[in-house]
């Protein structure tokens, strides 16, 4: 008799515990989903309900990112995304929804953080490579540059550019990419601002200094008869090629957009970027 009473008491306790268990979301159908979500929400303390509402949104929208296989070319439609969200919510209590949403946010922020750090490292490396290449190019110097009007073998006026250069690099050079700017005090804009190539006969060896007289097209801007005799020529080096005609030290500089992004990422992640990824 005592055993039967004791068993009855235990059974009643189990039923009471089951009856008091937290309600769960049921996404087996649309009506069940609507009813169960409202029931779960009402079971929460008032101060948790906003968190719960936000949690539902986070779980639903998370399928647009982490719920899709990026290697699968199949594009999910709205119904499929909703179905995936339902799978993630089914069987969750209110507190579990809040916890799941918090976990999703933390994982998303971690991914964004890692991506930002990798982008920062890539931009830092790109900038460092561009600076290094510019330093290498600077070892090839334009020692002097002069513009004047000479005479062709047939006596016609002909523009001439006299150049003296020194190859301070450790590579033999076959071709130069140059920018020539011709200015005078009485002219508000340059007479000429042009980028041009010069192929070096037999190349120029490391440590070698050479002088050339170049003859630009007299029918182009260099042959403008209005250019005064006191015009000043500035020639800057823009690029080099080796004896195999391959560009040397030509890494591009960061764009304005990349520089702005680098500055922003440095402020936020600069102190931890390299230590986390090494």
Give structural notes:
The chain has 278 residues and is α+β, with helices and mostly antiparallel strands. It has 2 domains: 18-137, no CATH class; 140-243, Immunoglobulin-like (Sandwich), CATH 2.60.40. The chain has 7 helices and 7 strands. The protein has helices spanning 2-19, 30-43, 46-62, 78-89, 94-137, 256-269, 273-277, and strands at residues 140-151, 157-167, 173-183, 192-204, 209-214, 232-242, 247-248. Strands 4-3-6-7 form a 4-stranded antiparallel beta sheet, with no helix packed on it. Helix 3 packs across helix 5 (94-137) and helix 5 packs across helix 6.
Could you give a short description of this structure?
This protein is of the alpha+beta class and 278 residues long. Helix content is 45%, strand content 24%. Helix 3 (46-62) crosses helix 5.
Strands, total number: 7
Order of strands across the biggest sheet?
A: 4-3-6-7
Quickly give the structural class: alpha+beta
Overall mean confidence score, pLDDT: 85
Residue runs with pLDDT of under 50 for 5 or more positions: 4-19, 65-76
Report how far apart the termini are: 72 Å
Counting DSSP H or I runs of 4 or more residues, the number of helices is: 7
Shape: rod-shaped
- Most strands sheet: 4 strands, antiparallel
Rg from alpha-carbon coordinates: 37 Å
What is the helix/strand order? HHHHHEEEEEEEHH
What percentage of residues falls in helices of 4 or more residues?
40-55%
Number of domains: 2
């Amino acid at each position: 008799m005592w055993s039967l009473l004791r068993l009855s008491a235990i059974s009643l306790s189990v039923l009471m515990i089951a009856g008091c268990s937290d309600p769960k979301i049921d996404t087996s159908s649309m009506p069940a989903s609507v009813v169960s979500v409202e029931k779960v929400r009402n079971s929460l303390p008032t101060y948790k309900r906003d968190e719960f509402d936000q949690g539902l949104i986070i779980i639903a929208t998370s399928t647009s990112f982490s719920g899709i296989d990026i290697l699968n070319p199949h594009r999910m439609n709205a119904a499929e995304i909703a179905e995936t969200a339902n799978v993630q919510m089914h069987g969750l209590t209110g507190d579990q929804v809040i916890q799941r949403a918090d976990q999703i946010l933390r994982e998303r922020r971690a991914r964004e953080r890692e991506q930002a750090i990798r982008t920062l490292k890539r931009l830092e490396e790109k900038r460092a490579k561009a600076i290094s290449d510019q330093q290498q190019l600077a070892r090839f110097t334009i020692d002097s540059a002069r513009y004047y009007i000479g005479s062709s073998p047939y006596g016609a006026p002909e523009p001439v550019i006299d150049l003296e250069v020194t190859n301070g690099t450790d590579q033999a050079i076959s071709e130069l990419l140059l920018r020539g700017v011709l200015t005078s005090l009485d002219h508000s804009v340059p007479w000429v601002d042009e980028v041009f190539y010069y192929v070096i006969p037999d190349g120029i060896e490391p440590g070698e200094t050479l002088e050339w007289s170049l003859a630009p097209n007299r029918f182009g801007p260099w042959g403008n008869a209005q250019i005064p005799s006191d015009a000043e020529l500035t020639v800057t080096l823009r690029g080099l090629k080796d004896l195999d005609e391959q560009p040397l030290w030509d890494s591009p500089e960061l764009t304005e957009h990349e520089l702005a992004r680098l500055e922003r990422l440095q402020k936020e992640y600069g102190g931890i970027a390299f230590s986390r990824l090494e």
